Amino acid sequence: MRTFSMRPRTHLTALLAVPLVIGLAGSPPAHAAAQAPNAVVAAKPVKSPPTITALTPASGPTVGGTPVSITGTGFTKVTAVTFGANPALITGATSSTLTVITPANQAGDVRVTVTASSRTSAPATYTYVPLPAPPPVTSVASVAGTTSIGLAWTNPDNPTYAGVTIRRAKGTTPPATPGEGVLVGDVSAPATKFIDMGVKSGSTYSYALFAHDAASSHAAAASVSVTALKSTTTPIVTGLTPTEGPTTGGTPVTITGAGLGRRRLSNQVRRGGEFGFGWFGCASACGVVDVRDRRQLRGAGPASEALGVLGVGGVEGGLP
Length: 320
Description:
Layout (H helix, E strand, L loop, with lengths): L6 H10 L13 H5 L16 E6 L2 E3 L5 E7 L4 E6 L2 E2 L1 E5 L3 E5 L6 E9 L2 E2 L3 E6 L8 E7 L4 E6 L8 E8 L11 E7 L4 E4 L7 E9 L5 E10 L8 E6 L10 E7 L4 E8 L3 E7 L25 E5 L10
Parallel strand pairs: 2-10
Antiparallel strand pairs: 1-3, 3-7, 4-5, 4-8, 6-7, 8-9, 8-10, 11-12, 12-15, 13-14, 13-16, 16-17, 18-19, 19-22, 20-21
């Protein structure tokens, strides 16, 4: 009887029990990666925030408008530069240099930051310095009326001058500071005149004019005192035009003076009888009720310092 050896089968079974691993050259097999839970995977790089290394210059006036160069790193895709709470105007940018125009701010130190790609730098310090106040206005003059006072002055020749604050006090002592007295006006440059309509006839007022810059830094006061004219109840005649005319009357005459509005001018001329001018209040020529009426003429209209009338027939001479 023929017999067979079983050893080869044993070897074949052993070979089949070994897993067959086939992989690409230089690449780990798929199951090997699955069997390496602690393998390190490269992370996406995180962008750093911008940095500020210097501000040039590091100080400027409170009114702003100063060009400043900011040097540092990471100045790509810059979206904002702030001085304190106020944004600056960006006029130039590279990855390491920014050029900006400062905004206005209160005097003192402020924090300057740069924002790029949604990341903000650590702050740098910029110092705002108040400008000296402009010189005072000069050559202050006044013109008095009965219910108004006009003021005039000369503005200082200074680039920081922005206007003048006008304060008023009753009496001969002007306000000493821009916060005293009554504020009657704040006149912007380049104006040099102002009319105060809030005065009373016969009262004395003192005015203080404070020149100031755009940041409301005030100069010393330039002052003037003036008394408003008193209202007159007695008409004053200063001239007649023309000063003569025919005895037949009918000549247009302009009477100039003060206090002529709605005043009775009666019994002013007398020759062979009593003739007078009655109630007048004309801005130009007054109407005539009856040129033959030797007792009165009447006119209508607003008060004026000049009256236009028609001479009455039979009257010679004129008002004294």
